[in-house]
Write a structure and sequence with these properties.
The chain is mainly alpha-helical and about 475 residues long. It has helices spanning about 20-35, 35-45, 50-80, 110-130, 140-160, 165-170, 180-195, 215-235, 245-270, 280-290, 305-320, 320-325, 335-350, 355, 375-405, 415-420, 420-425. Pfam families: Ammonium_transp.
Length: about 475
């Protein structure tokens, strides 16, 4: 057969696969892709208007940069057939030999399809992570940082967790769709990005960590709709085939999102002025989705309700962490994804059941506490600790190193930040006026409409980084 899975000139290399499996995973891939701009719309709506377009730009940038990194060596570093315990080899460098051989993640689909499916996971993770430095990050250095971050942070953690050769997979850690590689990795990376960049500058606010009202609740809702919709493929496709297990996972995903949405709505109703907030129900749905991600293909459907409720409740109170830590994680990426992924991983250890994993006709696990396998909780905690610690530490090292390279300083100056990332870095605004004259410096008379009142020009920069 060879290392490519066969010779298409002499045989039909499709016959080794059930085409229904490939159709479902390709459909799931398309569903996950829509999550990337979904995160961008969500982040954009939550930001202030004069930074809103930059968050949508980041979504398109993330999928582009990660696609190139994945082609270059990302897929090989994560899902190489010759991987070691910690990272893959380069046998698939430049997508070399990635064709019809059964993938390491699922023998039911070929390498070429599995690589595409995992690409959209990687791009979603990248987009979540860069939200840590919103409203103050320079976009050029962000692209460089993201390529490096994917290589030395995301790919090794994905290899540990999902490659059968990875140490965490060999140990017996359970992560169905990315509680560790996607959510904890991006959450810890975003926290490091926010820490190294420093707090946003605002002459009208005090020195405490600041919160602002979303500039577009409609964008928040649209982003949430894209995410909830796409998450059905995110979790449903992680079975790696078109079996009952994947469809069961999709059902659990929807149930956890609904449970999280209602929990967050109720908590905020009593904590924040007895209003039925749209942003609250959106945030709660995402918390429930994050919590069910590592568990969906391992746990009974009924457990999606406590997973959604517990994860949403813990994440709601975790939003106060930024005030305790004095780190300006304005989009609460760590509280929602880092903490949410941690809770989902722990709850997987409680609710995992052997008969649910076996719904695909092949997977055998000892289960969690439901099967009296009490050791599983310890394995889940070990994996979560390693993932959070590695991502935060290595992300911090990358960011600090870039900060001191000439031309790669991470954040905007005070004046640029007050004008807005959209004008200073992109040269376009969220609501473009076609009749407004364009100036060569990218600044036009209306650009300050969504920004704070400018302060007199000063030599001070906004670099409050560590």
């Amino acid at each position: 057969m060879g290392n490519t899975g066969g010779d298409s000139l002499t045989e039909d290399i499709n016959t080794q696969y059930n085409l229904a499996n490939m159709v479902w995973i390709m459909t799931a891939t398309a569903l996950v892709w829509i999550m990337i701009p979904g995160v961008g719309l969500l982040y954009s709506g939550l930001s202030r208007k004069h930074h809103g377009l930059s968050l949508i730009w980041m979504a398109l940038m993330a999928v582009s940069v990660v696609s190139l990194q994945w082609f270059f060596w990302g897929y090989s570093l994560a899902f190489s057939h010759e991987a070691g315990k910690f990272i893959g080899a380069l046998d698939n460098f430049g997508m070399m030999n990635v064709l019809a051989a059964p993938s390491v993640g699922s023998t039911a689909i070929p390498d070429i399809l599995y690589s595409f499916y995992q690409l959209v996971f990687a791009a979603t993770t990248a987009m979540i992570m860069v939200g840590g430095a919103h409203e103050r990050a320079r976009l050029g250095p962000m692209m460089v940082m993201l390529f490096i971050w994917m290589t030395v942070v995301y790919c090794p953690i994905a290899c540990w967790t999902w490659n059968p050769s990875g140490w965490l997979a060999k140990l017996g850690g359970l992560d169905f769709a990315g509680g560790g590689p996607v959510h904890m990795t991006s959450g810890a990376g975003a926290l490091a990005y926010a820490l190294v960049c420093g707090k946003r500058h605002d002459p009208l606010a005090d020195d405490k960590v600041k919160t602002y009202r979303p500039h577009s609740v409609l964008s928040v809702v649209l982003g949430t709709v894209f995410l909830w919709f796409g998450w059905l493929g995110f979790n449903g496709g992680s079975s790696g085939n078109a079996t009952i297990r994947g469809f069961y996972a999709a059902n659990s995903t929807n149930l956890a999102a609904a449970s999280g949405a209602m929990t967050w709505l109720m908590i905020d109703y009593f904590r924040k002025g007895r209003k039925w907030s749209v942003v609250a129900i959106c945030t709660g749905a995402i918390a429930g989705l994050v919590g069910i991600t590592p568990a969906a293909g391992f746990v009974p459907c009924w457990s999606a309700v406590p997973i959604g409720v517990i994860t949403a409740a813990v994440c709601n109170f975790a939003f106060d962490l930024k005030k305790v830590l004095h780190i300006d994680d304005g989009l609460d990426v760590f509280a929602l994804h880092g903490v949410g992924g941690l809770m989902g991983s722990i709850l997987t250890g409680f609710f995992a059941a052997d008969y649910i994993a076996a719904l695909d006709g092949a997977t055998q696990i000892p289960g969690g506490w439901l099967n009296h396998n009490y050791r599983q909780l310890g394995l889940q905690l070990a994996g979560a600790t390693a993932t959070l610690g590695y991502s935060f530490t290595v992300s911090t090292v990358i960011l600090v190193a870039l900060k001191y390279i000439p031309g790669f300083h991470l954040r905007l100056s005070v004046e640029e930040e007050l004008l807005g990332t959209d004008v200073c870095q992109i040269g376009e605004t969220y609501f473009q006026d076609s009749d407004e004259p364009v100036y060569t410096d990218g600044v036009s008379p209306g650009v300050m409409s969504g920004a704070q009142t400018p302060v007199p020009r000063t030599e001070k920069t906004a670099d409050e980084s560590v």
